[in-house]
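Tokens help. Consider this.
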Amino acid sequence: MDNQNDMETLVDFITGRPVPNVGAEANRQAVERILVEEKGYTASDIEVDAPISVDISGEVYHSRVDLVVRAGGGIIMCIKCAPGSLGSREREIVAAARLLASHQVPVAVVSDGSNAIVIETASGKKIGEGLAAIPDRDAAEMQMKQFQPIPLPEERRKREGLIFRSYDSMNVNRASVE
């Protein structure tokens, strides 16, 4: 199966589009199903492969965040779907959640589809472990009502950009970002 045309594909649960079954794609499909079927989000609440651009010393690094979830009128969480050790991906998703918007997204999650680590973005502290710790839509809407946007100071933004790029550039089996 060296030819990309021979690559196995899955139908993305959220978008309905075919996607190559490489890397953590099966994990992402599991997380998408959990968000909709167990956590009460709608497909329109979830953005797949959300674009993220980070300015690093005048050069723009483009990538994607696996899943971005909206509730209560704003982005509530960024999710990294990863195979293997979830702990090794915590820092990457926290950096993405700090950089994705003009303010820090409240919750960062890394999941393999059967387990999850949930992190409060601003502090970087783990606030839960396991799929049950991922906020459901009702809890997310309540959290967004109380949410006070926290901007990231420019100097910190630069450091987070370097951290994000360092981790993200090590991701393999990802479709290229244009």
Observations:
- The chain has one domain: 7-168.
- The longest strand covers residues 59-71.
- The chain is about 30% helix and 30% strand.
